[in-house]
């Protein structure tokens, strides 16, 4: 789809910590940059030189399939060297602190740190403590900016524009960094966002957020253009926010039956990993409206763009 390109401007952020503080213009600029990088993945030799001689470290303190591998591949495609750090096989298991770990890696000459941590604010803390660029790959319940970017990139690809678009984000919103990054990106770009969940899974500060709230998926499903189903984060629940998974699935699961009420061209999204049969039935996850694997594919171009832009900003600031 042809669209007017965002105005060229000087990208100045050497860190990507979240989407809350980015403007619509900056988000659009990242998406446009990502569009330019898609072509590299179609070449027979899937490589380009922008990060040649640079070192990216994947500093993951939580498990990941999509984000970690996507960042690794994105860095490889841009010709960077990649260090894969995992907590379990590192000296963190001997008591080394996060900051000592990062400073020791920095002493080896790293340029970009991609960090995932279960505590909100760790990427920001790191950005103030080391000279390398810092990219947030998910911090606690706070933000997961590259997931938010790949989600809006995917929506833009299928729907063209965010004007008048209604998007439902459904499920465990209280514990979801994806919901927060999605909300900032989607509303800044002009969409209306509705959080749909049982009251126990809606964040306490929701009245201060730029969203509507509904406790009934059945009331919302026929009105929305996009539905983003979130994973129930059992590892973070710390209580029983619903009586049983069966009851949750009955009221908030995306079933084949419920999909009959949706618009025929509704986009079905999920950041992954999916609890099949709980958040959505397999027939829906793999059905004709699902763009779940397209999201994963688009994540690669978006992460190439992010690595490229933060490195460019760092070079300008030297
Ligand atoms: N969407 C997402 O963050 O998936 P991973 O936890 O596998 O990285």
State the gist of this model.
With 318 residues, this protein is α/β, with parallel strands linked by helices.
Could you explain the architecture of this structure?
- The chain has two domains: 24-143 and 298-317, Rossmann fold; 145-296, Rossmann fold (3-Layer(aba) Sandwich), CATH 3.40.50.
- It contains twelve helices and nine strands.
- The protein has helices at residues 24-37, 66-77, 98-107, 122-127, 145-159, 177-188, 217-220, 234-237, 245-252, 256-259, 282-285, 292-317, and strands at 55-60, 81-86, 112-117, 133-139, 166-170, 192-196, 212-214, 226-229, 267-269.
- The strands form two sheets. A five-stranded parallel beta sheet has the order 7-6-5-8-9.
- The longest helix has 26 residues, at 292-317.
- It starts with 23 loop residues before the first helix and ends with a helix.
- The structure holds phosphoric acid mono(formamide)ester (CP).
- Phosphoric acid mono(formamide)ester (CP) binds at residues 64-67, 138, 144, 147, 271-273.
- Phosphoric acid mono(formamide)ester (CP) is lined by residues 64-67, 138, 144, 147, 271-273.
Q: What is the overall number of helices?
A: 12
Structural class, from secondary structure content? alpha/beta
Can you tell me the CATH topology of the largest domain? Rossmann fold
CATH architecture of the largest domain: 3-Layer(aba) Sandwich
* CATH H-tier superfamily of the largest domain: Aspartate/ornithine carbamoyltransferase
Which regions contain 5 or more consecutive residues with pLDDT less than 50? none
Series of secondary-structure elements, N-terminal to C-terminal: HEHEHEHEHEHEEHEHHHEHH
Instruction: Provide the domain count.
Output: 2
Mean pLDDT comes to 95
| Rg, alpha carbons | 19 Å
Terminal residue distance: 38 Å
Strand proportion: 5-15%
Beta strand count: 9
Helix percent band = 25-40%
User: Ligands in the structure?
Assistant: phosphoric acid mono(formamide)ester
The CATH top-level class label of the largest domain: Alpha Beta
Give the overall shape, derived from the CA principal axes: globular
How do the strands line up in the largest sheet? Answer: 7-6-5-8-9
């Amino acid at each position: 789809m042809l669209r007017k390109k965002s105005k060229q401007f000087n990208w100045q952020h050497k860190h990507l910590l979240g989407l809350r503080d980015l403007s619509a213009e900056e988000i659009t600029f990242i998406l446009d940059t990502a569009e330019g990088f898609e072509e590299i993945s179609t070449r027979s030799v899937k490589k380009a030189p922008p990060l040649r001689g640079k070192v990216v470290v994947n500093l993951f303190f939580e498990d990941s399939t999509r984000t970690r591998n996507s960042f690794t591949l994105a860095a490889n495609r841009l010709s960077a060297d990649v260090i894969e750090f995992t907590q379990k096989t590192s000296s963190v298991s001997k008591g080394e602190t996060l900051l000592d770990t990062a400073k020791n890696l920095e002493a080896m000459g790293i340029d970009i740190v991609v960090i995932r941590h279960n505590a909100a604010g760790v990427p920001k803390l790191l950005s103030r403590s080391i000279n390398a660029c810092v990219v947030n790959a998910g911090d606690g319940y706070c933000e997961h900016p590259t997931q938010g970017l790949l989600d809006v990139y995917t929506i833009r690809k299928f729907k063209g524009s965010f004007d008048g678009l209604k998007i439902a984000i459904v499920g465990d919103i209280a514990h979801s960094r994806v919901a927060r990054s999605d909300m900032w990106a989607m509303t800044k770009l002009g969409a209306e966002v509705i959080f749909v969940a049982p009251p126990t899974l809606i964040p306490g500060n929701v009245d201060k957020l730029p969203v509507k709230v509904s406790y009934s998926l059945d009331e919302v499903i026929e009105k929305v253009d996009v539905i983003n189903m979130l994973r129930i984060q059992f590892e973070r629940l710390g209580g029983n926010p619903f009586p049983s998974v069966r009851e949750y699935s009955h009221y908030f699961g995306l079933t084949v039956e419920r999909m009959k009420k949706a618009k025929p061209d509704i986009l079905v999204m999920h950041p992954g990993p999916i609890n099949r049969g709980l958040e959505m039935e397999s027939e829906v996850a793999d059905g004709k409206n699902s763009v779940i694997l397209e999201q994963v594919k688009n994540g690669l171009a978006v992460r190439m763009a992010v690595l490229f832009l933060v490195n460019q900003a760092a070079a300008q600031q030297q």
